[in-house]
Amino acid sequence: MAGLVIFSLLISVVSYCSNAKLSDNVDITWSADHVDRANEGTELLLKLDNSSGSGFKSKEQYMFGTISMEIKLVPAESAGTVTSFYLQTDSTPSIGPDYYEYDFEFLGNVSGEPYIVQTNVYAGGKGGREQRIYLWFDPTADFHTYTMSWTKQHTVFLVDSTPVRVFKNNEENGIPYPSKNPMTMRSSLWSGEDWATRGGLVKTNWNHAPFIASFRNFIADACVVSQGQGQGGDDSSCSKFLPSSSASSFSSAKMEGNLGSEKLGWVRKNYMIYDYCTDALRYPSPPPECFLI
Prior knowledge:
Elements: E1 11-14, H1 22-25, E2 26-30, E3 35-38, E4 43-48, E5 54-72, E6 81-88, E7 101-107, E8 116-122, E9 131-134, E10 144-150, E11 154-159, E12 162-168, E13 183-191, E14 211-225, H2 236-239, H3 259-270, E15 272-275
Antiparallel strand pairs: 1-14, 2-5, 3-4, 4-14, 5-10, 5-13, 5-14, 6-7, 6-13, 7-8, 8-9, 9-15, 10-11, 11-12
């Protein structure tokens, strides 16, 4: 890459308390007038209308760890809305060989139809690794916990402690993996009506705006890397960091003999509706990581 990822070697492990003020641990990145604080700042409400969406990001950037958020999604007529919770590198240029991103994207729908959760992985500046599932509960009735557990070996996406996806470190096989690239947590609510609901066939009904998604209990049980002077690299303190959550019990993408493997299989069998690895029209020759389990 033209410019190496730069960060200092000031490293610490942090665990935000679940009852901490979310507003104290994040910065508003987009349309502050569309962001409300609730319950003395422990909750943030993102709004979307036909003038703007909104978003925020963590004050810190991380290098391995378990990052989670409780989210209550846009209720009722939510077609065309996209609620996002993701990790992203702060690289320059924004999409280049050192760009990585792990996404939860919640795709709204018309009333009575289930939400679709899309996960995606950008690795080495390339995305296109979408998987989609239906949720097995109403994500608008209450808060649920969404987690990305990122270690040297793999990244596990979890919904209420149930694994829904594993992305394994296959650098030895030429597949990029963020083993040297710190990332920032970001959340947003925005309009994706040109693609989000039935491929864009169902548009947003702006008569129901403002659309509101609620966020609370941001927990970063993670290795913090502060920006500053010095050349980045795979610092030993962070590369050895393992999250304290149950997600750290995942020993491989296959997870043979592990309860997590059974739960992941249950999700894939009953709720998966799209996997890029099996999309022959899009990928006549599946991407190489699809063969590496």
